[in-house]
Automatic annotation (TrEMBL):
Gene expressing this chain: p2rx4b
Organism: Sphaeramia orbicularis
Record flagged with keyword Nucleotide-binding: yes
Protein's recorded name: P2X purinoceptor
Coarse class of the protein's main subcellular location: membrane
GO terms, biological process: calcium ion transmembrane transport; response to ATP
Cell compartment(s), UniProt: Cell membrane; Membrane
Residues with attached carbohydrate: 187
The organism's place on the tree of life at top rank: Eukaryota
Disulfide bonds: 119-168, 129-152, 135-162, 220-230, 264-273
Gene3D superfamilies associated with the record: atp-gated p2x4 ion channel, atp-gated p2x4 ion channel domain
PANTHER family assigned to the protein according to its UniProt record, in alphabetical order: P2X PURINOCEPTOR, P2X PURINOCEPTOR 4
MF terms (GO), sorted A to Z: ATP binding; extracellularly ATP-gated monoatomic cation channel activity; purinergic nucleotide receptor activity
Keywords, ordered alphabetically: ATP-binding, Cell membrane, Disulfide bond, Glycoprotein, Ion channel, Ion transport, Ligand-gated ion channel, Membrane, Nucleotide-binding, Receptor, Transmembrane, Transmembrane helix, Transport
């Protein structure tokens, strides 16, 4: 047999060798416990967390939603700034069509009978003057209220300010009515209609659940304990669940979130798909630094006097904006996520022998004996005899 043929045979011999693992059984309670214990941990993780809590066997889809709202309630005001007045939804809901957010007027500063004319600026360091030289004709200050005419006029008996061309008389908003003018708004109710779709599963739901009939809807009011499915909310109740006092917030306004959580389990054995409501204040109410608090904006109503002059009533409106925030995911059994997560769990199991080996080779009293048997070095020069050597593996 030539040398090269022998080499070839040897190579072939390697290619067609079958390798198998030799199993070493360690009859030690400690290692056995560690191994079973880690197995149990992985099992608990897979069954408890992955399957029950995370529902990793499910395919998921997020919600597409539409919201409409309708506020109802009446109020009657009788204050010095305004004639006695009755208020209904058309007066205090701005804008009239509510969707994902609606605004309820609760307080206001009213400046009636404004006309395009000339009047003295409100006094502050940049508008007070001594004579006409301090006022520049045509000057505009965005923080001011109008275009200066160049005259210095009496604001009051002691103060002189620059005259401006503006909607006069100017609004004075330093005094906000307290308590809020529309305090009765706390008893207003809002009906929230919310339809949701999970397009991947072609599932449609709405927050007026199938068992709600129209006579129940006419008289019910949301209450977490007694009427958790009623879609009609009393504004005061919303605020108190958000930890706010209505009368307090009504004075300067604010933003409040109505959060609707649709977390749906569409598997036939669970089949749970109802909305969960929660409420929280969204604008920041800092207890110490309360600069520029609340929420307000201005709007005006325009009139023509009989002699053709245009006048307006300016309203600085304070109120609570309610934002309806809908979120959620639906889950349904899916074969792909199941396989992927099963694979991940099995990969975890294959790590366990390493943990037990480490314990066996470092912590047990017979560790040298075990490492002698576990790790075998074959000497290279002879094929026939192999010399196993005890190694220092695991002893440091
Ligand atoms: C709201 O309604 C309750 C009970 O119906 C009543 O006691 C309360 O005075 C009302 N609030 C206002 C501000 O009118």
């Amino acid at each position: 047999m030539s040398r090269s043929a022998g080499c070839c045979q040897k190579t072939l011999h390697y290619v067609f060798d079958y390798e198998t693992t030799k199993t070493l059984v360690i009859p030690n309670i400690g290692v056995g416990c560690i191994f079973r214990f880690t197995q149990l941990l992985v099992l608990l993780y897979v069954v408890g967390y992955v399957c029950v809590v995370q529902k990793a066997y499910q395919d998921t889809d997020s919600v597409i939603s539409s919201v409409t709202t309708k506020v109802k309630g009446f109020a009657y005001t009788n204050t010095s700034d305004m004639d006695p007045r009755f208020w209904d939804g058309a007066d205090y809901i701005i804008p009239p069509q509510g969707d994902h957010s609606f605004f309820v007027l609760t307080n206001m500063v009213v400046t009636p009978k404004q006309t395009q004319s000339r009047c003295p600026e409100l006094p502050n360091p940049s508008t007070t003057c001594v004579d006409d030289c301090d006022c520049i004709e045509g000057r505009t200050d965005t923080r001011g209220n109008g275009i200066q005419t160049g005259l210095c006029v009496n604001y009051s008996q002691t103060v002189q300010t620059c005259e401006v061309l503006a909607w006069c008389p100017l609004e004075i908003d330093t005094q906000i009515p307290e308590p809020a003018m529309l305090a009765a708004a706390e008893n207003f109710t809002v009906l929230i209609k919310n339809s949701v779709t999970f397009p991947k599963f072609n599932v449609h739901r709405r927050n007026i659940l199938p068992h709600i009939n129209s006579s129940y809807l006419k008289r019910c009011e949301f209450n977490r304990k007694t009427d958790p499915d009623c879609p009609i909310f009393r504004l005061k109740h919303i605020l108190s669940e958000a930890g706010e006092d209505f009368q307090d917030m009504a004075v300067k306004g604010g933003v409040l979130g109505i959060i609707i959580d649709w977390s749906c389990d569409l598997d036939w054995w669970a089949r749970k798909c109802v909305p969960k409501y929660s409420f929280r204040r969204l604008d920041n109410k800092h207890p110490v630094n309360n600069v520029a608090p609340g929420y307000n904006f201005r709007f005006a109503k325009y009139y023509k006097t009989p002699d053709g002059e245009e006048t307006r009533t300016l309203i600085k409106a304070y109120g609570i904006r309610f934002d309806v925030i809908v979120f959620g995911t639906a889950g349904k059994f899916g074969i792909v996520p199941t396989i992927v997560n099963l694979g991940a769990a099995l990969a975890f199991l294959s790590l366990l022998p390493a943990v037990s080996d480490w314990f066996m080779l470092t912590c047990l009293s017979k560790k040298h004996y075990y490492s002698q048997h576990k790790v075998t070095y074959l000497s290279e020069d002879t094929e026939a005899e192999s010399i196993s050597m005890a190694t220092s593996y695991g002893t440091r």
